[in-house]
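G., before I forget:
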Amino acid sequence: MTTEPADDRPPAAGPSANLIAAAVVVLLGGAAIAGATDLGSGPGTWPMIVGVALVVLGLALAVQARRAEPPERFTRSSLLVVAAVASMIVYVAVIATIGFEIPTLLLAFVWLRFLGKETWRTSIAVSLGIVVVFYALFVGALDVTIPHLF
Amino acid sequence: MSAVIDGFAVVLEPTNLLYCLVGVVIGMLIGVLPGLGPAATIAILLPVTFGMEPVTAVIMLAGIFYGAQYGGTITSVLLRLPGEASSVVTVFDGYALARQGRAGAALGIAAIGSFVGGTLSIVALTFVAPIVAGFALDFGPPEYTLLALLGIMLVATISSGGRIRALAAAGVGLLLATVGRDDFTSAERFTLGNLSLADGIDFVPIAMGLFGLGEILYNLEERHRAVQPPAKVTGVWPSRADLRQSSGAIGRGSVIGFVLGILPGGGAVLSSLAAYALEKRRSKHPERFGQGAIEGVAAPETANNAATTSSFIPLLSLGIPANATMAVIFGALLIQGVTPGPQLVTEHPELFWGVVNSMYIGNVLLLIMSIPLLGVFVRILRVRATVLAPITVLITLVGAYTVNNSVFDIGLVIGFGVLGYLMKKAGFDPGPMVLAFVLGSLLETSLRRSLLLFDGDPTGFVTRPISGTLFAMFLAVVLLPLAGTLLRRRRPAPTAGGEVAAHPEADRPTDTAQTQTGSMEPGPTVNESAENRPADSQQMKSGLVAGKPVSQSPSSTGPADAQVGSMAERPGESPSRNPNSETKEPE
Amino acid sequence: MKITLPALGLAGLLLLTGCGGNLDSDGDSGSTAAYPERAVTLLVGQDAGGSTDLIGRALADPASKDLGQPITVQNKPGANGAVAAKELAAAKADGYTVMVFVGSLAYITPLAVPADQAVDINNYEVVTGISQDDFVLIANPQTGFKTVQDIVAAKRPIKFATTGVGTGSQLTQTLLFAQAGVDATAVPFNGGAPALTAVLGGQVDVAAVQLGEAKEQIEAGKAVPIVTFATQRPSYMPDTPTATEAGFQVPVQQSRAIVAPKGTPKEAVDRLRTAFQKGFADQAYKDFNTKRLLTANEVDGTALLQQWNGSLQTYRDLVAQHKIDLTAK
């Protein structure tokens, strides 16, 4: 714990970021209350209670937003996360139509080579390895009905 | 008693020993793979058991069940991927230990705890199964309501983030649990017209997304800010000190696990949660929890394994399956022409005792197998993060698919992964959200069922003996710390939070803790080992209020960020779920 | 770049050995000549290990032997099978995707959910009926209830456990108590085991569960059978009257059938029916039926549609007649 350099703490965002987090909680609570109202009493009662609790908690978070530790700021390297999420969304979008093998190969490769800055050699070898092992494990051994091409 | 000994004779037949081994190996494998749970695996393997003797079949299937429990621990500790709801609590300290290079100790203590918990639970099962079976029947909807409520309060106290943040996350978890067709009216709630959500969201995508994928995404960003050396693995085995530190936790975890495991539905999750909360509360240094406290792994792992074993009691002595896996084993027995029920012990003693005794052997096998495997598993952490990340991501995505054979669930994992990442950035701990999600539908449905049973009269909760007792416990959990806060506020002592803030260099948690306990708890600080201190109100206070985790080094990453947040919020906080408590200003 | 060569080789090899994939895109539909030329997927709309799943698996095994191709069971749980039924409706009607369809989805759930969420069995091609499960009303011995008359004579409001909203368990009891004039409150539980537990623990007075689930408890004297909702007395419960004998009109069963998408070629449907009939004749499957206390209902598609549509109409009328709202709290 103590061996890490002291300057690797992510930069903190301003206290306003805490207000945004609090606002999200309030909004969620509000959405729950709105949905609960539509459902009416019975199915809606419990979501209503939870919604009200969330609004109260969100307001409490807002009150102490200035004192609480601020969230971390988004930096340029946050773009990596965006890229990673985008790659997974493409993965889930195509898996049903073209099977899991090619998307798995490509996702692994993109993560290794571009997100992980591994060498070409390692990236290709590892991503191929992943596909072969996954195929053997999920299709061969476990007979899972995941969409597969081969 | 001779039936018990005959049972051993049954188990020690080579075929049965072999299938016991096959069972625990398969169990461990599928426990390691997220997604495919023991229930589904057993269902898939059912045709294989058609040709077997009933005893052999159940011995193997039971092996899969408790083998999977242990396998789930491995991914929880190494990759922050809890495969089962009962492993969620293990993530808190298990993953923290792994990041400190002590994954071996965590896994080792989990193996030992599981062994002890499992074995003690079997001993108890052997002697008292018929007597305690009725206990499961005394638990009706009102009792479950209070148990779930207690569980959710515990969730907020065990979290490493700030109290209000933890409660807000728990609230979102409760809300997520309402998604799907209402059990009482079949009205669709928050499904946005999507049929895939009609049965609600599955636990696996939520847990995998918030914990595992969220962590990976966070680290992806982190990696480029500072070079993070892979954790140095310091020793593969739990040290003597680890064992000494955990022995009490293992003992108490066994008892909690055995008792709660008997309850059908949610027993294992509640037991791991309760065992963890108890240890944190008893501890002299509760702030270590969430930062890699070895008891924080020992307690829940012992408890969930003990619960796994005792969940056989309702099945074998009442014919009631306590969870999904038990339901499949019930089905397997039916196919074998044996109907589990009240008469099983008298009609098929060889089966009853064969199964019970196979669990002794199975636990020994698991221990023997897992100890040498520790070194292998721990080596996974030596793989560069850049290589490990895509492998973990893909296992998570494919694993999510295998739960319901649904591509939709893969999408959910990604969504919750993004949420987990954002929560981590904002200093919210996903633990309360996942656990509240697990307990949420139990709480809501039990509450509504109770009100139906009471014809809408809530005083029914107090008049039933067990639920009345639980209600008193609930009040104790909520009110005692509140009273503690009020008492403390009258005393003009400097708050620990201020002290720590004044000494940002204080990087050894123990130091700050001593400062803290010294300044705030004039109570029993003499001599005691954690095991024999009474759980009096001082303890409650120290666990719930004074014992909020206080930061260690400001240089540390990850959970520590949330810690600092909690420190700043801490002084004025009280459990705000209680309608009587208003949020107070500090100072 | 050398690494890619073996990869290409591997890919080529896999292509040469032929596609073994499970995607719908390969093969032209309606290949009547050689049906079946690959594995058939059997969708199950319930969790692995449940009654429906076990029935599907017990049947898939012997049927695939006759078919000469594997039958792969695939669980798509959700909304009492509505998720799987929707997937089946969207699947290619080529005989390679079929489903174990539960009757309650076709004739009870529509009474409890909005019309747009109801599944209409007439939009599917029924291959064959499978079997029926009967429900039994059980009471906790401490209630002293032995017959429906006892419940009526008790002249007190009672609580009954159901296995969920829109299930046979709910429908049977609601109809029975409406006809008997008993003030009864439904307490929905999530499945048979919790409902049974609630009766054994005395949380509720009575519950209707499937025979197989309650058999052991009844034999051990922990639960008292009051009536069955079968059409005739089940052979191992000769002393328990049916609801009809007790004077009530509550003919409710759980029924299951193999169903294909609408438009599946007749040849494929016939071939599948032959295969499943071979499966029904299999001794292991027959034993399974006996042990699970299932009544064979191995009728063809027309007969099954008649049964199910008739049930839906009957229940609709009964529910309307007794002014019952299955969705009420």
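Residues 493-587 of chain B have pLDDT under 50 and may be disordered. Residues 103-138 of chain B form the longest helix (36 residues).

More on Monday.
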